[in-house]
């Protein structure tokens, strides 16, 4: 939600919002990654498969932006970000159904499903690398939805979250540094965001175990859908 918040509330330019949010997300996820690593929740084989697709595509996307392959004015980039937010909201709502579908396919055709897992995971990384680098949206929620389908038995909910977060750390930092090199990062804004994230992370950790996850997911998806409609409607 950070990039839409920077766009709609604070009036930050889209390219600066994307670049700043990427570095902010990467830095704040480092702490969570260390915790998950210490608890042994990370599936490193899955992470490596995702990185194989996401990191090269992220570098290519930054290069393409720098050299003018993606020439988008302010309104068009806002709309693209809006579509990414809508994709995230939809993914949050259908994650359970996709997990159930993946579970049925995994049990019904185990060998065939496992044979396609590695290349499909790399392709999921390609999608995430492009989407996150261009819009800063999707590393968490969209990645979790894809993993819930691709690894319905192997990744328990806690391992899925840990694996998804660890994949997102270098992707966000890598893409953020690329945007930094082309001048798309506001360091003063980044500093204030990091200061605010300290109490925010503490409060979120306290509340997350007390709030009903099902209704929290639906509420967040509705908020994201509203934001996505607002952004995609800029050109209407």
What does this structure look like?
With 236 residues, this protein is an all-alpha fold. The protein has one domain. Helices cover 82% and strands 0% of the residues. It has helices spanning 2-8, 14-38, 44-66, 74-108, 110-135, 141-150, 157-181, 187-208, 213-232. The longest helix has 35 residues, at 74-108. The mean pLDDT is 83.
Q: How far from one another are the termini?
A: 22 Å
Secondary structure category:
mainly alpha
Strand content of the residues, in percent? under 5%
Average pLDDT score: 83
Shape: globular
Number of helices: 9
DSSP E strands, number: 0
Q: What does the radius of gyration come to?
A: 17 Å
Uncertain regions spanning at least 5 consecutive residues: none
Secondary-structure element order, N to C: HHHHHHHHH
The residue fraction in helices comes out at over 70%
> How would you characterize the largest beta sheet?
none
**Integer count of domains:** 1
């Amino acid at each position: 939600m950070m990039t839409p918040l920077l766009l709609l509330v604070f009036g930050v330019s889209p390219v600066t919002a994307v670049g700043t949010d990427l570095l902010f997300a990467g830095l704040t996820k480092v702490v969570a990654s260390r915790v998950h690593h210490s608890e042994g929740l990370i599936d490193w084989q899955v992470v490596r498969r995702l990185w194989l697709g996401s990191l090269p595509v992220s570098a290519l996307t930054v290069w393409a932006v720098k050299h003018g392959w993606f020439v988008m004015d302010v309104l068009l980039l806002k709309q693209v970000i809006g579509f990414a937010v809508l994709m995230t909201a939809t993914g949050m709502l259908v994650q359970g159904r996709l997990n159930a579908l993946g579970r049925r396919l995994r049990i019904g055709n185990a060998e065939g499903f496992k044979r396609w897992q590695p290349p499909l995971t790399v392709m999921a990384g390609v999608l995430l690398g492009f989407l996150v680098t261009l819009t800063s949206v999707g590393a968490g929620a969209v990645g979790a939805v894809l993993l819930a389908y691709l690894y319905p038995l192997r990744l328990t909910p806690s391992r899925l979250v840990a694996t998804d977060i660890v994949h997102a750390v270098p992707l966000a930092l890598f893409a953020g540094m690329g945007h930094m090199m082309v001048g798309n990062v506001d360091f003063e804004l980044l500093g204030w965001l990091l200061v605010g994230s300290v109490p925010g992370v503490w409060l979120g950790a306290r509340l997350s175990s007390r709030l009903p996850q099902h209704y929290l997911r639906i509420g967040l998806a509705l908020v994201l859908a509203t934001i996505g409609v607002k952004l995609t409607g800029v050109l209407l």
